[in-house]
């Protein structure tokens, strides 16, 4: 297991154990295979978001916030933080060559819900003049925000069925008959 070493501070632990050495490559690989759509994602972009979410939950010693910046050249800048905060502090080398404006700032909330926290809003307002969109990923949901229009789209996704739906009696009888054969 590799480690990212950081300076001691209030927002990040001294080291992050990496369980998946290719976590950044996994994100980049999917991005290279899609036509990235922002501020409101298409299905391929949602698949890209799913990979970011998966890395946030599974690539490290514990679930951690991950952020991905897509710059104007469609280059990715990726960092990892704690369970509740992410920045590029102590990972500044990741930012070399970034070209403004930022097409999209994407980050995860591995503790569950997709929402923009107070810190997120501060980031958005600080970078608004050079950030076209922001997306926050939560458990089976995301919010995509257009900084120019201030219009957001919140999407929940999961397997969805009518509540209380039950197979008709004739379907259950047919399935039972087939099992008995």
Give a quick precis of the structure.
The protein has helices at 23-32, 43-58, 118-127, 169-180, and strands at residues 2-5, 15-18, 66-70, 76-80, 104-108, 133-138, 141-146, 151-156. It is α+β, with helices and mostly antiparallel strands and 181 residues long.
Comma- or semicolon-separated keywords:
single chain; 181 residues; alpha+beta; 6-stranded mixed beta sheet; two-stranded antiparallel sheet; 23% strand; disordered N terminus
Characterize the largest beta sheet: strand count, sense, and whether it forms a barrel.
6 strands, mixed
Cα(first) to Cα(last) distance is 52 Å
The overall strand count is 8
The strand order across the widest sheet is 4-3-5-6-7-8
Q: Strand percentage, roughly?
A: 15-25%
Stretches with pLDDT under 50, minimum 5 residues: 1-13
Principal-axes geometry comes out as elongated
| Number of discrete domains | 1
| Average of the residue pLDDT scores | 86
Percent range of helical residues: 25-40%
> How many DSSP helices?
4
């Amino acid at each position: 297991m590799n480690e990212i070493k950081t300076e001691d501070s209030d927002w990040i632990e001294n080291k992050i154990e990496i369980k998946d050495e290719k976590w950044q490559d996994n994100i980049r690989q999917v991005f290279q295979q899609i036509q990235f759509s922002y501020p409101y994602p298409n299905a391929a972009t949602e698949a890209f978001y799913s990979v970011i979410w998966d890395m946030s939950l599974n690539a490290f010693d514990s679930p951690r916030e991950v952020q991905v910046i897509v710059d104007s050249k469609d280059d990715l800048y990726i960092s990892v933080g704690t369970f509740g905060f992410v920045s590029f502090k102590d990972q500044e080398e990741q930012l070399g060559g970034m070209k403004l404006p930022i097409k999209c700032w994407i980050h995860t909330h591995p503790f569950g819900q997709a929402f923009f926290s107070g810190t997120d809003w501060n980031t958005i307002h600080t970078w608004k003049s050079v950030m076209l969109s922001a997306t926050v990923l939560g458990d089976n949901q995301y919010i995509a925000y257009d900084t120019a229009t201030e219009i957001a789209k919140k999407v929940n996704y999961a397997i969805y069925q009518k509540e209380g739906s039950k197979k008709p009696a004739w379907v259950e009888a047919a399935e039972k008959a087939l099992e008995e054969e």
